[in-house]
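Forwarding the complex inputs:
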Amino acid sequence: MNGAEAVVASLRACGVEVFFANPGTSEMHLVAALDAEPGARAVPCLFEGVATGAADGYGRMAGRPAATLLHLGPGLGNGLANLHNARRAATPLVNLVGDHATHHKPLDAPLESDIDSAAGTVSGWVRRCRDVRTAGADAAAAVSAATAGRGRVATLVLPADVSWSPGAAAAGAPPVSRPTTSPSADAVAGNAVPDGPVAEVAAALRGGGPAALLLGGPALREPSLREAARVAAACGARLLCETFPARLERGAGLPAVERLAYLPEGALAQLRGVRHLVLVGARSPVSFFAYPRTPGRLVPEDCQVYDLTGPDSDVRGTREALAHLADRLPDVQGAPAAPDPAESSPPTGPLTGETVAAAVGALLPEGAVVVDEANTSGLWLPAATAGAPRHDWLCLTGGAIGQGLPLAVGAALACPGRPVVCLEADGSAMFTPQALWTMAREGLDVTVVVYANSSYAILEMEYDRLIAPSGTTTGEQGCGPARRNLLDLSRPALDWAGLARSMGVPAARATTAEEFTAEFARALAEPGPHLVEARVPALFGPPSRTGAPSTPETPSTPSVR
Amino acid sequence: MNGAEAVVASLRACGVEVFFANPGTSEMHLVAALDAEPGARAVPCLFEGVATGAADGYGRMAGRPAATLLHLGPGLGNGLANLHNARRAATPLVNLVGDHATHHKPLDAPLESDIDSAAGTVSGWVRRCRDVRTAGADAAAAVSAATAGRGRVATLVLPADVSWSPGAAAAGAPPVSRPTTSPSADAVAGNAVPDGPVAEVAAALRGGGPAALLLGGPALREPSLREAARVAAACGARLLCETFPARLERGAGLPAVERLAYLPEGALAQLRGVRHLVLVGARSPVSFFAYPRTPGRLVPEDCQVYDLTGPDSDVRGTREALAHLADRLPDVQGAPAAPDPAESSPPTGPLTGETVAAAVGALLPEGAVVVDEANTSGLWLPAATAGAPRHDWLCLTGGAIGQGLPLAVGAALACPGRPVVCLEADGSAMFTPQALWTMAREGLDVTVVVYANSSYAILEMEYDRLIAPSGTTTGEQGCGPARRNLLDLSRPALDWAGLARSMGVPAARATTAEEFTAEFARALAEPGPHLVEARVPALFGPPSRTGAPSTPETPSTPSVR
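Prediction (whole assembly, two chains):
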């Protein structure tokens, strides 16, 4: 077999089923190899950012990697932002990048560029395949790297001559541990949890003083959440959650966690008074952005920080560490802090972020996968959906907007039996609208809600936070032509329903809460993709001509972002 | 002033007028600085690939740089593909990338990434501003680097704390030579052309034997074209042109040049028998992609290659070198080889790439700027437009598709009095459709033609070239499920007219040559942006069920790509 066939066969043998692809000439042998491999599913993406974001969504929900298929340096470049998000999510992902033939590279042909350097900025593992005889083993090694620990982006660069040359051999699945586990493996792996942190943390929690567990990554899956709730019940510790979790299991029957606020002022208020902060799959909290007069590190000065599991603990190891911790604390027979069951009814009146959230909370179906890139418009979503039927909540982990629609594509392919609800800010959705076409092509059961507030509202807020207080010259009461041009999306307003239909996705527009509820319900009920354009006011905006903020009720501390 | 104000003021002082921007929180002080700077034009782009491609188009047509404004590593990543194209075009471009505050970077906040490494892959110059006191000088140095020689991408990374800190000073224009020149500078700079290559080339051309000049970059502007035509008339040399020129001046009254073919077989045929190949602003030709049984270097073995000007000669230096060469050859009083005047009449009948080209050739207005990302559908364009009124032709220089629509945005802003015609393949246009919104926002006079063939037709051709001859297993006569899924854009078909309207661009669909001619004429006649969706058959396609190619008339050597 040739190198391309060995790579595809090896990835298949290691459990990779789906390839999110936008190939070019240098990847044609990989396309042919996919043609020849039964069971390989090639999903077309009209832009590489869709491919990488979809692979992220797939990996988060499947717990094992999908592969991408990208065309040289520019294809990798187009996929870079969502690979950055995948890296921050610790998603297992095999990033397959074709390159010119080895002998062609010194000629510096038009598409030649430094793939390896660009790949290094987003990958936990990068390898360039240099010999057709190792192509299969290199592919297996990529899966091994992608699935080690919590998971990472593993980039394999495959030159065209390695793809087309004969003499390759497929490699099987490497003997590595996977994030998922079996009961028999549990017993063995229990020894892997070092007792040190557990004993130290248990002693601290028994010693009293306000304590909080900051849960992140694998600690936000059900097994860990239940153990964390035991710990909380035993010692009164609060259960906090990182601001933008990759995958949070939540809803009726599951212990509730409180997400750290996006703005540092909010997170500092949440952490005030905490004396013991136990990190479980999360990192010590820092401000998302720097501001001139706000600290970057958010832990109170007199707070002791413990890391229970280290940065690379997987789902199994994290649950075990929490169980060991709970076992060392008093056994409290209290029920875990499950949220109240939903009592919400569909909202009425004007359509706002708040009424959209109420409708989502009222109608969210059992087992939904919620992709949240709602930004400022999504402020009310966590509270409104806390008591909804069980669901997974997937966030923008790396701050590179344009993640939501692709993530929904991947989640839907990973979970064919589950409804996917994608809650999208309009500014963010415009970074990767091509994902809508893939939803239509693949017939994915995704309900997209676009919050059409015609604004980069978060930047309107940040502009006021950063510029207005300092008295910097901005002209016209803090609203000069650049701000008006760069943060406003209303001239012309984007017709999201029309845009979706142009790519084959049925769509409707809602301007009242009643309309939204009806359209959202219809989209959920019908199979296949749908888009509902929710015309909502922006939460933040430029000062009006009189110099006062245009939004009368500005929450002082947005709790989500 | 603060660092952001110094950077903006310095860029303005060095002649930068337009900022193609998609800022984020870390760039809010730059937005405020743009607000405070009269004469700075901030152009909003809904995706960074639009910003970088627009800056490329602006720089090609204005001959001086626009600036981008990008948000951290992911923003740079999204702009990377079109920066790659700008690098290949040698476009002067100041790529301004915001970063976290210096003290925030060690905290590894979610958006932290290695900006410098990614920037290095596309930039001829990268600098990180480390001190507010040098911010103004750093910005001036970026302009200086961007405009040196032919031009290059100069990336300046500006941390947020440098932006917001006081103590900065604006810097003026540095004393560097610019690509454009004045008559007085000409006389002085004549000495800069080394006589060695000129004398050697003149001797070779006088010595006889089939010769060709391969023109590229600055040699494709009118002054050089006229001197090259003198050389050709004097010694019978052919005038060839690089395959994808950044900016080719052509049309009625200008010397015609023959573009090298995209496929190596075609270029090899064009170069067969040439004994003296003189590079003028072009590089020694190589194959765009590697193929198993085709050479990468396209120069015949017994051909001597000369480089008249070196790789970094600007418009002035290139013209002078050609003039010096012509002066050393016999003075032939023949007219330059201008193409025949246009005799075309609007086409009738089915709409195809050929009839679209005929309509474009018949209707192209005087002074048009043509952006060509038509790919396979554009095969007939060079011949059909050779005798059209004078125009500039801008190509996809780096092979990173998704360049055309953004390039048209930048060209229109650089040339407000000239009509821009953007000829787009549907597959390529889907990489950066957000550019349509910027056209609407800015009211740009761009006529977009989308060749809607619902196919990655060039990959259909390449698949057959690469896979079918080698007998590799592909299943179903060379058309398995992956090929059918990944190269076909017809399920669902993209509604380009609807997509354009959703972003505020008036649009129409044409299915016959008559309809296309009418809609194209109307779009040219009306101010502001328009899109015409031209539904054309794909030139290449998968084998039919009987195993025969689906396209009956496959040209053996596409002359464009």
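Chain A touches chain B through 109 residues (CB under 8 Å).
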